[in-house]
Amino acid sequence: MGLSDVVTGPRNEEGIAAAVGVLKQRFGDRLNTGHSIREQHAHTTTYLPSQLPDAVVYPETADEVRDIVRVCADHKVPIIPFGAGTSLEGHINAPNGGICIDTVGMNRILKVNAEDLDCVVEPGVTREDLNVYLRDTGLFFPIDPGANASIGGMTSTRASGTNAVRYGTMKDNVLSMTVVTADGREITTGTRARKSSAGYDLTRLFVGSEGTLGVITSVTLRLFGIPQSITAGVCPFPTVDDAVNAVIMTIQMGIPIARIELLDTLMMKATNAYAGLNYPEGPALFVEFHGTDNYAAEQAELFGEIAAEYGSSEFIWATEQEERNKLWKARHDAYWAGMQLRPGAEGVATDVCVPISRLGECIMATQEDAAEAGIIAPIVGHVGDGNFHVALLIDRESEKEIADAEAFIARLNERALSMEGTCTGEHGVGQGKKTALIHELDGCIEPMRQIKRALDPDNIMNPGKIFSLT
Amino acid sequence: MGLSDVVTGPRNEEGIAAAVGVLKQRFGDRLNTGHSIREQHAHTTTYLPSQLPDAVVYPETADEVRDIVRVCADHKVPIIPFGAGTSLEGHINAPNGGICIDTVGMNRILKVNAEDLDCVVEPGVTREDLNVYLRDTGLFFPIDPGANASIGGMTSTRASGTNAVRYGTMKDNVLSMTVVTADGREITTGTRARKSSAGYDLTRLFVGSEGTLGVITSVTLRLFGIPQSITAGVCPFPTVDDAVNAVIMTIQMGIPIARIELLDTLMMKATNAYAGLNYPEGPALFVEFHGTDNYAAEQAELFGEIAAEYGSSEFIWATEQEERNKLWKARHDAYWAGMQLRPGAEGVATDVCVPISRLGECIMATQEDAAEAGIIAPIVGHVGDGNFHVALLIDRESEKEIADAEAFIARLNERALSMEGTCTGEHGVGQGKKTALIHELDGCIEPMRQIKRALDPDNIMNPGKIFSLT
Questions:
Q1: Which ipTM score applies to this complex?
Q2: How far is Cα B81 from Cα B373, in angstroms, rounded to an integer?
Q3: Contact A433/B205, CB-based, under 8 Å?
């Protein structure tokens, strides 16, 4: 589990040297072997130790990606695709060394088909850049994992975030993509049709495959009209259980709430302190409603009735965009806010997702576990989906604290599985959850490996991830 | 294309005889080798010629399915899973012979988790049976392909239908499934969590794989609350273009219309005659709105404004359930109604799906093509998704008419592809669209075959479908 899943694989020294040489000739300054650059490309927000690639190359076109893959394939050298480096489970580590493909230079928005509500973007486009670009069209791309992740990375990890309860995850919002596979061919996995029954759903296979099957060179995304009305607010509850029961009722009643985020007492305290706010310091739901003026108001009213039923005494509205931005910034900064609860500590972020009926039980058992283990572990969650995050605040220099954190995470994973949930709702498996994945989908590991071997027989695509092929 | 894709593969006579013998001993009367039963299991609503299995076996449990698969795997004998036999592209033909697994006896609803809005069913449960069972819970399963298909079959073909514009397709509504793979193991592809980033999305890989990767033994489905208010109506338009423009505007405005179905003039005439109705005999949209009382009314009002803008002069409401049932029965009977346009003829149903901005152009070009080709071909469509069906009324005894129909369908497929659409929005590939699939996703055929070979090296799972492995 975790650290023990970060193994170092066999290095093909000769192949790596040859590939770096060829690529250096081809890409010149756009291939970098400096230690600090390589370090940056392996060191992300994860607590897992860095495993550096041997070089970082910066392609600017799909053709260049294809050239890089072909060189690496010829020399059987690992390829690690890199977006914005915001993944959390060691996805971009290079356990066997190899070439990191940084897509930052592939950041063009290739096409917006406003009337079809879709667009085609390169993988290095970030979600914030896309939404800035789209603003004048009246459209937006709703998936919001918090970090300003790249579309390629979000696709690779099957990201979701605060809006998923209403708009779905990357699985639901990628119509098609182009991918350079391990044999150096660029394939297109679908069309712009909204739905299709045309053969195996390779689009969905590549979504969430964490770079282990190919390098994404473009993504066709669904877009949505910016709602006429957006209202948001913060709703404090007496207990986590009350808050979660309000969530369950909201979902069961089919209220199409756009965001419904839980912050526990610890996280609310941290958020108030970090963002200079003065929300009540107990569990709270941050909510948002999208719709026509009438319908957004009706949803808010229905939700208000539910909240009152579960003991919420007030509803702190944020109707103006500026207030809403402040509210959601506070929510998105929860990770950083949480870190202030223990100055000097660093966060270990993890996530699980359970059927919503088990959510309250799962969160409370997790809080008790943290208290017993003596770990400061504030909780935030995309609770409309049954998904929540725990940020463990530890001293990453302390082996004991890392071991305690890993044991805690292992218990959390098992708790989620025992409730018919998953060990990761949105972060992905990477290196850190490989053991948990075996516990979760034991019978699927071999089929996944069979698919991997079929499509990438030399195991050059982001090796050492998901199912432990090193 | 079509007929030419229906090849007869090599028959493993010895293996088939051995497997039938073993299974006869094991299943007794539940294994049937009679010609008429075998004929029924290969002859569906497709125009493609039947290719009979050698035996039909009726398992009642997942363990029995596993036993059957193991026997067939041991003897390298093809397996053809069978649901309700409503597929349209030769999906259940047995080009190499083999054993048809009829899941009619696996029709138990294993669990309804009302508070999590999900349920677990066996593959032989039909969508109508499921909804009857659910009625008292206040929940429903929305996917409605018209025919009373089985959940296993709908999963296998990635079915959708009239409600997909609001509720998605099978891809969006299967949370997990259990499948017996070609090696005779039963695997579970996911959990009951609403979302997950736990490894390759095998659930989505199996959805739409048309039985070529395994036999489904249970499916976990999303459910939805029955809306407080359902209103429906018929809205005639001066031209198909006007109707389609109203659809485009409705989708672009984000009105979450539950159903929006186009019937062209020919189909409206047929429907009036068949169902004893007297709707205006021009192009029309059949629509339905779901929501709270206020919101369903608001949607209907907004749609009414759009329809008026595009020349619709009236809106024939059906607010009572009985009227609604009549309206949707008329829509669902369109295929049978269409057949009356040419007494004695049989229908060849086909479907394509294009980006919505191209829909009007695609439908009108298709109508012109039919007129020029002298084929009576009424059109109905799930137009909110850009998906439409053409029912070609032909004399199936006439080689010329079949050839004309196939040429027409080939042109239709190419037309859809040229508009960035797909050759099948919901029927699947089966045998009939194998050539079209190559035209559509050329680069994906080899990865699909690689996956197939990896998971089913002896090609026993529904051979001869999708990508022409025979």
A1: 0.97
A2: 37
A3: no
Chain B's closest residue to A353, CA to CA, is: B193
Please tell me which residue of chain B has the smallest CA distance to A115.
Answer: B357
Domain boundaries, chain B: 2-104+448-455, 234-336
Q: Residue B160 and residue B173: Cα distance in Å, rounded?
A: 10
Give the pLDDT of residue A470: 56
Interface test with A, best of B119, B194, B245, B441 (most A CBs within 10 A): B194
Specify the residue for token string 């929501």: B291
Q: Does B157 touch chain A (CB under 8 A)?
A: yes
> Measured between alpha carbons, how far is A29 from A27 in angstroms, rounded to an integer?
6
Tell me how far apart the terminal alpha carbons of chain A are, to the nearest angstrom: 16
Confirm if A213 and A206 have CB atoms less than 8 A apart.
Answer: yes
B253 to chain A: closest CA residue: A225
Tell me the chain A residues in contact with residue B421 when contact means C-beta distances shorter than 8 Å.
191-193
Q: How many A×B Cβ pairs under 8 Å? A: 269
Instruction: List chain A residues with CB under 8 Å of B115.
Output: 248, 252, 356-357
Under CATH, which architecture does the A229-336 domain have? 2-Layer Sandwich (3.30)
Structure tokens at A461: 């695509």
CB A220 within 8 A of CB A179: no
∠ CA A181-A185-A188, rounded to 5°: 80
Mutation choice for A interface testing from B139, B177, B181, B196 by most A CBs within 10 A: B196
Contact by Cβ (8 Å): A337, A349 = no
Q: In chain A, whose CA is at the least distance from the CA of B465?
A: A199
Using CA atoms, how far residue A434 sits from A10, A207, A413, A420, A463, in Å, is 19, 18, 11, 18, 13
What DSSP character marks residue A298? H
CA distance A340 to B405: 70
Min CA distance, A252 vs chain B (Å)? 7
Assigned CATH topology for domain A339-434: Alpha-Beta Plaits (3.30.70)
Question: In chain A, which residue's Cα lies nearest the Cα of B448?
Answer: A200
Contacts of A353 in chain B (CB under 8 A): 193-196
Q: What are phi and psi of A408, to 5 degrees?
A: -65, -45
Nearest to A454 among B425, B440, B451 (CB): B451
Residue whose structure tokens are 């359970």: A354
Q: State pLDDT tens for residues B111-149.
A: 999 999 999 999 999 999 999 999 999 999 999 998 999
Does the B234-336 domain belong in CATH 1.10.390.10?
no
Q: Which helix (H) or strand (E) holds A92?
A: none
A444/B354 CB distance under 8 A = no
- For the domain A106-225, what is the CATH code? 3.30.465.10
- A339-434 has the same fold as A229-336: yes
Kindly list the strands in the beta sheet with A229-236, ordered across the sheet, starting from the edge strand earlier in the chain.
A316-318, A229-236, A284-291, A259-263, A379-382, A387-394, A346-353
Render pLDDT for A129-146 as a digit per residue (tens, 0 to 9): 999 999 999 999 999 998
Contact of A194 with chain B, judged by CB distance below 8 Å, is answered with: yes
Overall residue count recorded for chain B in this entry? 470
Q: B439 touching A, CB under 8 A? A: no
Rounded to 5°, angle at Cα A120 from A118 and A123 = 130
Does residue A8 sit in helix, strand or coil?
coil
d(CA B178, CA B62): 9
The matching CATH number, chosen from 3.40.50.620, 3.30.43.10, 3.40.390.10, 3.40.50.300, for B2-104+448-455 is 3.30.43.10
Interface membership of B222 toward A (CB under 8 Å): no
**What is the block-wise mean pLDDT of chain A (470 residues), using blocks of 10 residues?**
75 97 98 97 84 98 98 98 95 96 98 97 98 96 95 98 96 98 98 98 98 98 95 95 94 93 95 92 96 94 96 88 90 89 92 96 97 96 95 93 96 98 97 96 97 97 86
